[in-house]
Amino acid sequence: MTALRIAAELAGWAAVLAAAAGVALHFSPFDARLPVLAAALVPYLLLGSVVAVLLFAGLRSWIGALVGALVAGVAVWIQAPLFVGESAAGSGPELTVAQANLLFDGADPAAFVDVLREREVELLTVNELTPAALDALGAAGLDALLPHRHVSPGRTATGTGIWSRYPLTGTVEFDGFVLNQLGATAEVPGAGPVSVFALHPVPPVYGVDVWADELERLRAIVERAPADRPAVVGGDFNATHDHAQFRRWLTGRFRDAAEQSGAGLLRTYPADRWYPPLIGIDHILLAGGRADGVAVQALPGADHRALVARVRLGS
Fold this sequence. Notes:
By secondary structure, the chain is an alpha+beta fold. The protein has helices at residues 3-27, 33-39, 42-59, 62-79, 81-84, 109-118, 131-139, 142-145, 208-223, 244-247, 257-261, and strands at 94-101, 123-127, 148-152, 160-164, 168-174, 181-188, 192-199, 231-236, 255-256, 282-287, 289-297, 306-313. A hairpin with a 6-residue loop joins strand 5 and strand 6 (181-188).
């Protein structure tokens, strides 16, 4: 066996181990710093299974190729739902929903409002809303475009807001969280009252225990929304589909709009680097509704891409 073949086989087994680690991280229930941070990179680790199959097939090492193929099969199984979508057709009134993290007051307000106008957004949730950003967005025409709002601006990352084309009632701010968390009820024509939440749990780098606790307490809050009406949740969850702590949100009546529509891995962060965004931590969740399509939207000056979803309520 030549040194080159040995090196190739070692590389193949290393790729298998990387993919197997990705599978383990996807299912990991542990609220520990290393697995939680590493879980954000699961899709990239899973690509190791493809590399392994190609290497071992080229070497005619069929046992290695079989192991790689088995791990690849598991990788496809856990990632495929994001690309396949749901077959159920919607039947209720349509609503365009957007979610955006503004990077304090870094996002270009005029460009942002232009995007919302072009996409005909009717319901908006934002994170990292500062008083300066609130004033700038109003001056750029956001309040004219979406005249009803429930906002709680704050310093740096704490601020959160909801804007709506339709009247908002029952506005509330949920206490006991590091960042501001909001709820309201939008009176949407043809759908009646719709529960709306704008959420922003802390990132795990702030403290994994706090992150996991906030995710769980916020999940309990949205699950208590009236079951006889649709609900829309927009937020920077600081979690991807490969975090078990986030997937618990999808075990009840809420569904992820991107998964419903088969939009795939919608990477939203970081959007202010020379390379493309790597992870998808912004989400729009729905209960009593279905997303027909979800897309990412660049926001000049922000470190997140926005999400825009076309939703059919009451379906």
